[in-house]
């Protein structure tokens, strides 16, 4: 790769980008370690100052990305392929869907699958009175909204842009490549480094937030199952153990340790959902999930543009702003993973798959876990809301204890502890690989020493944010980390639209052929019409421009 050093400590890496990104993150580490209380106060103050702006800015940006992705999936460019015209998908549909499922599940969905529905059951701007059956459906609907199509539109957008410029335009698999139509060769210089630095910054704080939430939940689960006191020291020990295992597995590479952990996650997740289907209030869970999904689909536009403008109680900042910031911070990480497994798919295949498959899986998960908690609050012994208000991280285990299944319930709690641990390890693995992929200029197998280094950095930063104040500080950190990258997302939109202007000249066949044709050709060599014929006016324009735009050439 043109970005990489060929020798020395930065061999295989973009030295300038690595130094800049490392210096910024290490400065945050040192500042947090010696000025922990000041860090907490500063993050809270910055969040309070920016909330009035973010309450509408994030709403507009995320709503736009959803509508933009739907337009790309069904509109004029739906047949554009993430690769060259004669390529077909690298993975079968079943394998691709399975990997999307793995990408869609994370420790965040375990942390909030019970806590969010229960909290919004009693505090919901869309119902007049909390704690009612109507409030339960509204709480589940809001949970679907925060974990559904909008969030996955962010991931789909970043994944599609990365795949498009890497596989179709032959540029490195990094964020800066999306700005080639705007910056040209300047992406190889300081301008490109700034873009990738913002991506690294957002990704690091997104991962650290997720790790912090997972460690808190694992700590609370150990207390619920084994009566271990929830302390900062225990959280730091858990962080060290998780990141130690992650460092070992990430060194083994994507096809060994990381893949094995991902497959373990998949089967444990299936077992968790099967457990609630068998031992939970099955009929009620299915009915509640279906009803909430219907209300979610019916009110999607209203929720997309809801800004809480008539109220000033902080609900919008606490929930929607936090979630959209979290999704944005994770977008480089998940988007790059999705891009790497989606080569050869058309825009329509990619967008429909990435939007719909993870959303459906997430809604089923939230319906089962959140629905079980709401059922206990409505018709059972309750008590979950009291436990959540005392410690939000204990919500999942309070719900499992409320099922009152004796040894089966204890076994289920132990299984969930294992699932949380594997999700933490997988998140740390993938995050470490993605940060190093960006810093190495798109190399999917970055040097091992740098993988270990960034695993240690993520562990230290997680520990510092946990010491600085727990959940509130984690939420503030991810919102602040996502804001700079949101500006990159806007620029990526402009870059993609600029690049797509030339796709009207691209010839997209219905069958694979060995001999490429001119972009304005009506028939291929076998006499088969392309998927979408190019109008005569555009054919003339393409002949004038030449065969390919300047930046279709290989830039490796």
TrEMBL record:
Transmembrane segments: none annotated. Residues 507-532 are annotated as: Disordered. Keywords: Cell membrane, Membrane, Transmembrane, Transmembrane helix, Transport. This is Choline/carnitine/betaine transporter. The keyword Cell cycle does not apply. It comes from Desulfonatronospira thiodismutans ASO3-1. It is a multi-pass membrane protein. It is found in: Cell membrane. Belongs to the BCCT transporter (TC 2.A.15) family. It holds the Pfam family BCCT. GO terms for cellular component: plasma membrane.
């Amino acid at each position: 790769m043109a970005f990489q050093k060929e020798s020395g400590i930065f061999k295989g890496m973009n030295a300038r980008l690595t130094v800049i990104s490392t210096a910024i993150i290490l400065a945050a580490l040192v500042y947090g370690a010696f000025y922990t209380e000041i860090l907490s106060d500063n993050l809270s103050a910055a969040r309070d100052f920016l909330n009035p702006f973010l309450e509408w800015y994030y709403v507009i940006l995320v709503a736009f990305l959803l509508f933009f992705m739907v337009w790309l999936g069904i509109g004029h460019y739906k047949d554009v392929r993430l690769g060259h015209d004669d390529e077909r998908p690298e993975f079968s549909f079943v394998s691709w869907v399975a990997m999307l499922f793995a990408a869609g599940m994370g420790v965040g969905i375990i942390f909030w699958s019970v806590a969010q529905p229960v909290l919004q059951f009693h505090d919901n701007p869309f119902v007049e009175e909390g704690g009612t059956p109507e409030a339960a459906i509204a709480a589940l609907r809001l949970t679907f909204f925060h974990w559904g199509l909008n969030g996955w539109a962010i991931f789909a957008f970043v994944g599609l842009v990365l795949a498009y410029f890497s596989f179709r335009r032959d540029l490195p698999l990094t964020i800066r490549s999306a700005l080639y139509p705007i910056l040209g060769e300047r992406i190889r210089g300081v301008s490109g480094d700034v873009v990738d630095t913002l991506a690294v910054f957002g990704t690091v704080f997104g991962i650290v937030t997720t790790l912090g939430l997972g460690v808190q939940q694992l700590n609370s689960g150990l207390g619920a199952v084994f009566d271990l006191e929830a302390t900062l020291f225990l959280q730091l020990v858990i962080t060290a153990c998780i990141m130690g295992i992650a460092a070992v597995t990430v060194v083994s590479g994507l096809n060994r340790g990381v893949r094995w952990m991902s497959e373990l996650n998949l089967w444990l997740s299936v077992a968790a959902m099967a457990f609630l289907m068998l031992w939970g209030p099955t009929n009620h869970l299915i009915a509640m999930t279906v009803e909430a999904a219907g209300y979610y689909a019916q009110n999607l536009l209203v929720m997309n543009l809801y800004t809480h403008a008539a109220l000033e109680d902080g609900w919008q900042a606490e929930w929607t702003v936090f979630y959209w910031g979290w999704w944005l911070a994770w977008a480089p990480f998940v988007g790059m993973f999705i891009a790497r497994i989606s080569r050869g798919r058309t825009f329509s295949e990619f967008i429909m798959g990435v939007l719909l498959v993870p959303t459906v899986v997430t809604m089923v998960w939230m319906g089962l876990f959140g629905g079980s908690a709401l059922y206990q609050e409505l018709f059972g012994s309750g008590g979950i809301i009291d436990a959540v208000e005392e410690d939000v991280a204990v919500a999942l285990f309070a719900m499992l204890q409320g099922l009152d299944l004796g040894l089966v319930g204890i076994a289920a709690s132990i299984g969930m502890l294992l699932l949380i641990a594997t999700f933490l390890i997988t998140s740390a693995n993938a995050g470490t690989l993605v940060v190093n992929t960006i810093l190495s200029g798109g190399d999917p197998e970055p040097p091992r020493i740098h993988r270990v280094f960034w695993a240690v950095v993520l562990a230290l930063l997680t520990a510092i944010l946990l010491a600085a104040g727990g959940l509130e500080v984690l939420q503030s950190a991810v919102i602040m980390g996502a804001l700079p990258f949101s500006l990159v997302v806007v620029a990526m939109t402009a870059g993609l639209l600029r690049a797509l202007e030339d796709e009207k000249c691209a010839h997209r066949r219905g069958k694979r052929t060995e001999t490429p044709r001119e972009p304005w050709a009506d028939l291929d060599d076998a006499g088969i019409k392309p998927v979408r014929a190019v109008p005569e006016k555009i054919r003339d324009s393409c002949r004038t421009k030449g065969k390919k735009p300047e930046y279709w050439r290989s830039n490796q």
